[in-house]
């Protein structure tokens, strides 16, 4: 579980990132979760955008992604979800 200080730090680090995944009309699926997991292993911190044609609730999508990937939810802002998962081999971020 992330502390408030750690979440603030991660939000700051994620600010300049562009979303690398998009959740569309079909919602979250196994293939997407697998790809997001691989991206988290490489980058640790990613943004996922929810397209306007997705009718699911943003928090439900965020829950599905965090449970599927075992990542930490840093923030949901607008239609953007920020996820963090500590990398086993490509450790880049040093949490406060």
From TrEMBL:
Keywords: RNA-binding. This is Ribosome assembly RNA-binding protein YhbY. The keyword RNA-binding applies. Gene3D superfamilies: YhbY-like. GO terms for molecular function: RNA binding. NCBIfam families: RNA_bind_YhbY. It comes from the Bacteria. Pfam families: CRS1_YhbY. The lineage of its organism: Bacteria, Bacillati, Bacillota, Bacilli, Bacillales. Residues 1-96 form the CRM domain. Coiled coil: none annotated. Signal peptide: none annotated. InterPro entries: RNA-binding_CRM (IPR001890), RNA-binding_domain (IPR051925), RNA-binding_YhbY (IPR017924), YhbY-like_sf (IPR035920).
């Amino acid at each position: 579980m992330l502390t408030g200080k750690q979440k603030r730090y991660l939000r700051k680090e994620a600010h300049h990132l562009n979303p690398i995944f998009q959740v569309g009309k079909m919602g979250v699926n196994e293939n997407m979760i697998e790809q997001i997991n691989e991206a988290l292993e490489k980058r640790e911190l990613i943004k996922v955008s929810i397209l306007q044609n997705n009718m699911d609730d943003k928090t439900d999508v965020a829950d599905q992604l965090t449970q599927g990937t075992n990542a930490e939810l840093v923030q949901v802002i607008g239609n953007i979800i920020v996820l963090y998962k500590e990398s086993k081999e490509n450790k880049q971020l040093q949490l406060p």
